[in-house]
Fold this sequence. Notes:
The structure is a homodimer.
Chain A: E1 7-11, H1 15-27, E2 32-36, H2 42-49, H3 61-66, E3 70-73, H4 76-79, E4 86-89, H5 95-108, E5 114-117, H6 124-127, E6 137-142, E7 151-156, H7 162-174, E8 178-181, H8 191-207, H9 213-230, H10 233-239, H11 245-263, H12 272-284, H13 289-326
Parallel strand pairs in A: 1-2, 1-4, 2-3, 4-5, 5-6, 7-8
Antiparallel strand pairs in A: 6-7
Helix pairs in contact in A: 8-12, 10-11
Amino acid sequence: MLLPxxxxxxxxxxxxxxxxAALHLRSSASSIITIYxxxxxxxxxxxxxLPNYLPPTHPPVPTLFSSGRLxxxxxxxxxxxxxxxxxxxxxxxxADFKTSLWPQIEALVSPSCHLWSSTSGIPASVQSSQMTNxxxxxxxxxxxxxxxxxxxxxxxxxxxPEVEVEVASxxxxxxxxxxxxxxxETTGFVANRLAFVLFREACRLVQQGVxxxxxxxRIVEGSIGLRWGIKGPFASYHDGGGANxxxxxxxxxxxxxxxxxxxxxxxxxxxxxxxxxxQTESAYGPVSPQNFVERDRITRRVLxxxxxxxxxxxxxxxxxxxxxxxx
Amino acid sequence: MLLPxxxxxxxxxxxxxxxxAALHLRSSASSIITIYxxxxxxxxxxxxxLPNYLPPTHPPVPTLFSSGRLxxxxxxxxxxxxxxxxxxxxxxxxADFKTSLWPQIEALVSPSCHLWSSTSGIPASVQSSQMTNxxxxxxxxxxxxxxxxxxxxxxxxxxxPEVEVEVASxxxxxxxxxxxxxxxETTGFVANRLAFVLFREACRLVQQGVxxxxxxxRIVEGSIGLRWGIKGPFASYHDGGGANxxxxxxxxxxxxxxxxxxxxxxxxxxxxxxxxxxQTESAYGPVSPQNFVERDRITRRVLxxxxxxxxxxxxxxxxxxxxxxxx
Lengths: 327, 327
């Protein structure tokens, strides 16, 4: 039996912290979210940024303050108490900062409090090196922005007990996100590793004059991005292999796959960075906050219809099964 | 001035051929699609498969036959005539087959007929080697299934005149697809190259026990698939770099990116193929035709809402601009 986690403290009120605050607030009508950040303008900052992350029907931030559902904490010791269920950290990406932070937190919270870091790169085994019970800490790495994007990579250290992995997975699964447990601590975890190797090949092709940066974007949007947003690469290649599934796929196109792998080896030639930066800037101009608003609006709708269609398909299947049983 | 292309001959009635037939039929209410395939059961085959690719509101296949909009041709010479606007080939993926086919077609059609190959790997420069005017041929490589997926990679040979590239781009753009011109003939063109390098890293991580095959799928679906289906990698990293755009992104995470690239070098260890095949089969079981129906249903809806939201955003911007001008 896993208990709900309702008393959550966030360390760090950057965009990731506030996006998680919105997610945790939405997760339950009675959750209490405490935010600790040493910045002097914390209240004004939260009041200006957090509303962008909450759904329009959600109680507004001043109401959350007055009802006690959202608490700003001036000190670490007020934010981390014996009644805290989870401390989730998204402070500066510095091993020194995190390594010295966790023993302080460990001394303030109860032994049953769950300790999560949203780091994008510093493994739990490094962050926890000064803790009394280092196995307690695990990484819950989101894909930005976490209040919208479903993926949460759950990355335990080698000493993290299984139950901590289950608690974190259960929590994010229950609130409709997509937690995935990563078996070993690796540089960049998994999503970014996959993204970065594709990005390298994209930079290589741009540098070789095969394709322009903005055309790479249109190519990916109209093919593998769209496809893999609905059905990931292994499932898609399995579908694409005929009766023999993935094995058939690897037989049919294995030679081309291996040729591409061979050609894509080796470091990029000097000048690649300047070239892709120049093409990207000239295609898209300066980054505007409106970019995120538009991207997130489309993403929400896409997630909505994927969910709707999957539910409709499951319902139709269930009805079909009932119909056949009745025959 | 580019003329509409209404008289299109398809060589090869496999799934790609019939999917293109559906796309071309939808492109104009007066287009005439001729299909040549030596298979003896061609009519029964088209009657059974093509309806799956047409929208429910489209005239049914027997009506298309009786009205002359869909023509089945028993011979190449009946399929390729002086009134054919385009011949599009998706026969066997064999250089010998294609190389000997094109001179026959060239002798049948008018000099202004456009010649396209849907090949996924044999460049136009190879296919056209026996032609009188080899520059006429170019590759229009779709992402399967072409009646749904927007991408069409337009890959000219080094001798293809610019106007042939423009005609093909204009055609697919006008019917709502996403044609992208590839600057040089490369193994696998671009979309598959990008996909295959990501797939290699995925196989490596599965083999190393970092993640299971089905978890790779969930990771990609909930992060880069979803994101890149809406906004490709260069635009996304540009957004992610703060005020300095892509340059800022490369400064911030450049070290992790380079570390991942270094770790991802070198061939996969023996046994990777058996491992990913086994995990994929055990996760998804045998491939069923239902898989495609569900995938395509969700994909159509996702494309619909992406288009709706983009149009709404553009409308709101236009109204905003008008409003500011009125002030």
